[in-house]
Amino acid sequence: MNEEQRKEQAQINQVDAADRKSGQDKPLHEKTSADFAKYFETTYQPPNINKARKRGREEVDVHYDFDIPEDMKSIGEGKKFLIRTYGCQMNEHDTEVMAGILTEMGYESTDDTNKADIILLNTCAIRENAENKVFGEIGHLKPLKLENPDLILGVCGCMSQQESVVNRIMQKHQHVDLIFGTHNIHRLPHLVKEAMFSKANVVEVWSKEGDIIENLPKVRRGKVKAWVNIMYGCDKFCTYCIVPMTRGKERSRLPEDIIQEVRHLAASGYKEITLLGQNVNAYGKDFEDTEYGLGDLMEDLSKIDIPRIRFTTSHPRDFDDRLIEVLAKGGNLLDHIHLPVQSGSSEVLRKMNRKYTRESYLELVRKIKKAMPNATLTTDIIVGFPNETDEQFEETMTLMEEVGFEAAYTFIYSPREGTPAAARKDDVPMEVKKQRLYRLNELVNKQSAEAMKAYQGETVKVLVEGESKKDPDVLAGYTERNKLVNFKGPKSAIGEIVNVKITDAKTWSLDGVMVENTVEVN
Description:
Strand order of the largest sheet: 3-2-4-5-6-7
């Protein structure tokens, strides 16, 4: 996905030594990770792919007793919080949880940094560009912290799980008060308390993943669509990816807890849910006492009276026949499938440790299309993986055409510290990588435009999410196959599924006219 497509889519007491904090025995710039070790849980270790690969299948406990400590339940009254989120849907969901916790502590949400008493940056580590944005924002927030010493500025999420990132923040950005990772979000009340009353930075990063914490409060974005996390972590260890180290091993929520959450969302009037996981179709593979996978879960969820159910993101290696069989039954299980391929070259896929070949991926696509002839397929593609040849890139181009992807998120390879691929010598010049990305995006745009033309004159069911960001007189929503539709209609249609006749097909969106008020959902 290129920028065009993305746009379519939504004073501290000073000391003589500027880099020294009260009570510290040496300047921060001279400190190493050993000096910072006292801030971490004893389980903390820097990302290490070999150790992570050897991690065992320790029993994961499920806890249902989350509660806000009594002395923190009203600590936020009259105060406001702001959370800025970078990265994937999982981070969006984590933000909903943190917002829920802070709300139960008495805080109110704000979009104005000048009014915030707590600012949290929920970060992404998947690409260097995402990290650069976060460090830029940390710098921009420094004057605000100098003006308001009582402001709590925190960094959380995947970046915080990396030792080099924490060291950099501690050394160069001493105005950051709080650092925590992805495994201890449920400890936010305790961390906020420490940040309020501690004279030093509060840093708590668990390198080992924690248990599953249920019943965490959430403040969801909107009342139409909802994220439902069904599992955490990833065990695939693709050579370019830091996620197994930042998110930990795969841990699946119990089916009954997921089903209860979806039933509650349906009763609350939500029209669509998206099941989330770093590798969502590995769901259940960590269960030791039962055979129950994503296909089984989707079948059980299909019986709930909610119009639309999606899932993301899936790994081709775990997309099994049972899941295809269940999805083919249709109903409220949508046949828009996001299936990241990353490369069309079997040799590049081997170097990526994807554990499938071009041929096996195409066979999977054949199975899906046979069972669901009208299925819409989208994907993720990395160009310029270390030492990718012209021939190997051309294999990606031909795969793109052969499958007929209707959209793709496309990226130039970004080295991530601690991953095997980052240690590879790369002989592909950046200019070549940019040219390849340009060619790929041209193809993606072409195929998306062709797919959109098929909707010209057709009537589609649109789940109306709200007003268009470009024009408040225009409503916007998505079809079952995740196509963005803009049309004029009454504000009462927001939150409903309506019929829209398509009058104009663009590359990344559709324009239309509403032909009736609502669609009855069976």
